[in-house]
Design goal:
Shape: elongated
Structural class: alpha+beta
Helix content: 10-25%
Distance between the termini: 19 Å
Number of strands: 21
Radius of gyration: 21 Å
Order of helices and strands: EEHEEEEEEEEEEEHEEEEEEEHEH
Oligomer: single chain
Strand content: 25-35%
Number of helices: 4
Length: about 325
């Protein structure tokens, strides 16, 4: 039997929003997909609490904390420094039971921009074109404020977790925690790779993330080559992950909130697997690029998908064995 639980937000950090996997079928209307910047971390968080992959959850930048009115099952993934349940330290990247009236706090990690908190059940949030993902340009901010009260409909009725310093279950979780030092982003060649020397340059240089980066695109300071001549390029469709060469000496890797058409030369495409990594970069981060072929990109994506499917099966088995419900219709 489902019940409604109230989540009282104590600290919303410097930016916390509702998020999900983004919109489908809207780009033909000129509306970008949007959705979680780190799709891998968001998907794993939802799977760990028995939700559908695309379910609404919280995307957090900074510190975040809330107090539930009844026991809830949560999971925290992404760039997490520490998770606290009351005075106890809990593990990230695993299911956690938060008792009624106890504060759960998420402290940010040093090696990434965003963490994700999923709650078992359906988080009540407004939607725009079928998605809870924000789109500020459409007047749909979805920002969560200090002191907000958020409702969750859940079938979770409680499960004892005697020791928070030990994981509740042992699950095959595909954790991604990129460490210090330069991060490597895999690229497929784009139309402008015909610029003489551009592939060799990008494959050997280092680029630094600038303060001008945002949810539309990651801006990178480093060496570039421009096409010969000053002919204008006709605007064309641009996918998520497109690597553009603007008029200045920088590269832009377009994110999930980019406009769907543009007119800069596209030198490459960041692979789907690397796009979640780019969702965690912060200003000052050094990035290197590695050229791969389509087969390598597909194998990497297949391995990631296989890992998620393996986790889904393990969660289904464990939850069924101990009587924890799954919420597969909340995507």
């Amino acid at each position: 039997m489902s019940r409604e639980v109230r989540l009282d937000v104590v600290d919303a950090g410097w930016l916390t929003t509702f998020q999900d996997a983004g919109r489908t079928g809207t780009e033909r209307l000129g509306v970008p997909t949007g959705g979680s910047a780190d799709q891998h971390a968001a998907t794993v968080a939802n799977v760990l609490v028995g939700n559908a992959r695309r379910a609404t959850l919280f995307e957090v930048m900074g510190e975040f904390s809330l107090v539930p009115s009844a026991d809830v099952l949560v999971a925290v993934t992404g760039a997490v420094g520490q998770v606290l349940v009351g005075e106890h330290t809990a593990d990230a990247w695993t299911p956690i039971v938060v008792p009624a009236g106890v504060e759960v706090r998420v402290l940010p990690g040093a090696d990434g921009a965003r963490s994700y908190l999923a709650v078992a059940g359906r988080v009540h949030a407004e939607t725009f074109l079928g998605s809870a993902a924000p789109d500020a340009r459409m007047g749909f901010a979805q920002q969560i404020a200090h002191g907000a009260s958020i409702a969750v409909t859940t079938e979770f009725t409680g499960f004892r977790q005697p020791h928070f310093d030990h994981a509740l279950f042992r699950l095959p979780v595909p954790i991604r925690r990129p460490g210090p030092g330069p991060w490597t982003v895999d690229l497929l060649p784009g139309p402008a790779a015909r610029i003489p020397g551009i592939e060799q340059l990008i494959g050997s240089a280092e680029y630094r993330v600038t303060e001008r980066s945002n949810h539309v695109g990651v801006r990178l300071d480093g060496p570039v080559l421009h096409p010969e001549g000053d002919a204008e390029i006709v605007s064309h469709g641009v996918p998520v992950g497109a690597v553009e060469i603007p008029h200045g000496d920088e590269l832009i890797v377009l994110g999930r909130y980019r406009t769907v058409t543009a007119g800069y030369p596209i030198v490459a495409f960041a692979t789907t697997g690397s796009q979640s990594l780019l969702g965690q970069v912060t200003p000052g981060r050094v990035v290197r690029f590695r050229w791969v072929d389509r087969g390598q990109a597909q194998r990497s994506l297949w391995q990631a998908e296989t890992a998620i499917q393996t986790l889904e099966l393990a969660v289904a088995d464990v939850f069924s064995a101990v009587g924890i419900p799954r919420h597969r219709d909340n995507g």
